[in-house]
Amino acid sequence: MQISQKQGNEDFAMMLNAYDCPAILVTPQYQILASNQHYLESYGKIDTSKPAYCFKVSHNNDCPCEQAGEPCPLSAAYASGKKERVLHIHHSPRGKEHIDIEILPILNDKREITFFVELLKSVTLANPKIGNNEMVGTSPAFNQLVENITRVAPTEASVLLVGETGTGKEVAASAVHLASNRKDHPMVILECSGLTETLFESELFGHIKGAFTGALYNKQGLVEVAHGGTLFLDEIGDVPYELQIKLLRLIETGTYRPVGGKETRRSDFRLICATHQDILAMVERGEFRRDLYYRINVFPIHIPSLKERKQDIALLTRTLLQRIDQSGQYSVTDCAINLLKKHDFMGNIRELRNILSRALVLSNTPIIDRHVIKTCLEIDRKTRGDSGTTTDLKKNELNYLKHLIDSVDGDKDKAAALAGISTRSLYRKIQ
Ligand SMILES: Nc1ncnc2c1ncn2[C@@H]1O[C@H](COP(=O)(O)OP(=O)(O)OP(=O)(O)O)[C@@H](O)[C@H]1O
After folding, report:
1. CA dihedral defined by 297, 299, 305, 308, rounded to 10 degrees?
2. Ligand 1: which atom is nearest the Cα of residue 274?
3. Is the ipTM of this complex over 0.85?
4. Torsion sign (Cα): 127, 118, 141, 176
5. Pocket around ligand 1: residues whose beta carbon is below 6 Å from it?
6. Which of 140, 229, 261, 420 could form a disulfide with 186 if both were Cys (CB 3.0 to 4.6 A apart)?
7. What pLDDT sits at residue 92?
8. Residues of the chain with pLDDT under 50
9. Which helix (H) or strand (E) holds 80?
């Protein structure tokens, strides 16, 4: 424990050691008076020979956070007189980190706020720098997403993840699961698009041998596998109307019956659903059951599109590049990043990843420059059919595809996947 000698607030400082996370005692003027042992272990000693301010220590700023454009939990707690919670990115000996901050005002007998206790919990599900975490980002939209996940994960609330295609809904679902108390049990995923009634039921509830033609053995349903863990229903908006009642029953009662089975079984799972559709509009059009909507929409989380988090494009690009090619030999120029920032990513992070996979194939050097990115983007425009139809582009595209096929030893399925087109389109383009 560390205490600022001048202030002599030893009693309060002793109290900090009761917290099982890093904690500091701060004045309403942002001055840190004391820190506990966890703080010392995580962030090191604070130099208290001169006044130490939280905005300087945690952010290396010369002014309070709100003056630097970030929400300040201390000012919020000062205004509300109540506990406040916010997600910040702090500088620590480990570099930048997402921190879940809780701040509690301490009042004197005249009910004036004299101090704040600030608790700092490291958020490991996200990363503000290139790293192994699935989720990287520093933009306000991303931080809001991380804050929502951090808040809801330890509860049992059903989560509805709403976002455009390729924004990271599955990654977010996995983050909720891994930050929950169910993390040691499985997270089971059911992709709901294109399922027939029989397939949906037998996938979800399992079936008994002989239940229908082709049911040659007993099959465990995903609901049973998810027991104790999380059930993730991707593209929930694609569940046909007639099947929604079966899903509702499962969610309401936690019970189900395998296809062809007589006895009712029970499963204890946490539900996460995802969709790119406006489910409420579907309810209004009579395409989605209202009762089911209210069951799945307990805690909705908006997953931001890349358009909403343009400031993350550089970090995402460098992270994805490292993930695609683990040798670490590739780098990307700032001009190339600027070009990517101007692109309209309809397929969001997945599209960015595809473009970078192509760039690795097309680039003759380990430095991905503006020209390579430009070619990759033009190919995309061309396949969407909204670019100028120059023969050059056609030639470029053909060269690119041939190059791509060679690079994967003639495997056309792989080449098509890298190009982000179907194998059939690939054959059509190279014939
Ligand atoms: N915050 C993030 N940081 C780094 N990579 C991410 C992030 N979010 C998503 N990704 C990557 O983006 C790609 C798309 O993510 P994901 O499959 O979760 O999207 P989705 O929204 O579920 O897509 P769909 O709507 O098609 O099902 C994946 O390669 C994933 O690893």
Report:
1. 130
2. 22
3. yes
4. positive
5. 134-137, 163, 165-171, 234, 276, 316, 319, 349-350, 353
6. 229
7. 79
8. 5-6, 387-390
9. helix 73-80
pTM listed for this prediction: 0.82
C-alpha span between 236 and 195 (Å, rounded): 11
How far from each other are the two terminal CA atoms of the chain, in whole angstroms? 73
pLDDT at position 248: 96
Phi, psi of 179 (to 5 degrees): -95, 5
Going from the N-terminus, what domains does the chain have, and what CATH number goes with each? 2-122 (3.30.450.20), 135-302 (3.40.50.300), 306-430 (1.10.8.60)
Q: How far is the CA of 168 from the centre of ligand 1 (A)?
A: 3
Distance CA 73, CA 375 (A): 46
Residue pair 177/220 in contact by the 8 Å Cβ criterion:
no
Helix-helix angle 334-342:370-384, to 10 degrees: 20
Three-state secondary structure call for residue 421: coil
Report the C-alpha gap between 192 and 235 in whole angstroms. Answer: 6
Dihedral angle at the C-alpha atoms of 91, 92, 94, 100, nearest 10 degrees?
A: -80
Task: Please give the Cα distance from 205 to 218 (Å, whole number).
Answer: 11
Query: E-assigned strands of 199-332?
Result: 206-207, 219-220, 230-234, 255-256, 265-266, 270-275, 299-302, 331-332
What is the Cα–Cα distance from 52 to 70, expressed in whole angstroms?
19
Instruction: Report how far ligand 1's centroid is from the alpha carbon of 276 (Å).
Output: 13
For residue 254, the model assigns a pLDDT of 93
b/e string for 5-39 if b means 16 or more Cβ within 10 A?
eebebeebbebbeebeebbbbbbeebbbbbbbebb
Ligand 1 centre from 351 Cα, in Å? 10
